[in-house]
């Protein structure tokens, strides 16, 4: 870790949008599914990109798109249509099989001048700019890996599956110490690069995606990869508006926020 980045240096954004959207079941990649009605209507990815570009610290963007030709072309056309002077600093690349593959592809494509990297799910399309700003500020303040998070409001039980598939409760977890993590997650570039190198069998890692080397599944978020190497992850306040559009119900909620102007974004 080399300490704080120069405060005047901007941040790069990896917007991962290459998922299939199986749980949404819209018959097309989730990033390309229309969200909103009338003048607010745009693909999920476009909402996410416009939202992220409200963060003035972002200077460079890599959109990691679904790998098929038609989807790539549609994403590239959306980028060309962006009303933002940073449009020329937005690249589109084809994603990989798993989210972590897509992040690694995006990271490799980010220009070397970028020393601070944000990784954001296109599926968290209505994330307020304040969340981006808090994450960037924390990295600039010397925190090498940062995640936004919200408190858990349900009582959370740990369960085990019996031989017949029926689940029984093993324990009730201490909710006051649990957080649901969101994106954008922010990193010093070298912290993220080392975490991904380890995932792929580099120094400190293990081949096959078992980042912690303990037989547990690969971490589903990038801060998890840092944790698995014993790195420190700092938590900043997230937002309910940064919820991930995963199911048809989530899409309805997001559309309702847009319809009522309650998308959590500042109005001019
Ligand atoms: N191979 C993958 C898988 C996921 N993602 C992205 O990672 C984010 C979080 O993933 P999720 O919401 O789970 O999206 P999907 O993988 O598309 O959803 P599902 O599991 O329902 O197919 C999304 O913006 C998704 O596009 C990606 O870029 N590349
Ligand atoms: C990165 C993430 O959005 C943080 O909550 C989440 O881990 C993505 O997981 P998914 O299972 O790929 O949706």
TrEMBL record:
Which Pfam family name is an example for this entry? IspD
GO molecular function, a single term: 2-C-methyl-D-erythritol 4-phosphate cytidylyltransferase activity
CDD domains in alphabetical order: CDP-ME_synthetase (cd02516)
Name the residues annotated as site: Transition state stabilizer.
23, 30
Instruction: Give UniProt keywords alphabetically.
Output: Isoprene biosynthesis, Nucleotidyltransferase, Transferase
Annotated positions for site Positions MEP for the nucleophilic attack: 175, 244
Q: What top-tier enzyme class does this entry carry?
A: transferase
The pathway entry for this protein reads as: Isoprenoid biosynthesis; isopentenyl diphosphate biosynthesis via DXP pathway; isopentenyl diphosphate from 1-deoxy-D-xylulose 5-phosphate: step 2/6
EC number, as in UniProt: 2.7.7.60
Q: According to its UniProt record, which reaction does this protein catalyse?
A: 2-C-methyl-D-erythritol 4-phosphate + CTP + H(+) = 4-CDP-2-C-methyl-D-erythritol + diphosphate
Q: Which InterPro entries match?
A: IspD, IspD/TarI, IspD/TarI_cytidylyltransf_bact, ISPD_synthase_CS, Nucleotide-diphossugar_trans
Family stated for the protein in its record = Belongs to the IspD/TarI cytidylyltransferase family. IspD subfamily.
Function field: Catalyzes the formation of 4-diphosphocytidyl-2-C-methyl-D-erythritol from CTP and 2-C-methyl-D-erythritol 4-phosphate (MEP).
Q: Specify the protein name.
A: 2-C-methyl-D-erythritol 4-phosphate cytidylyltransferase
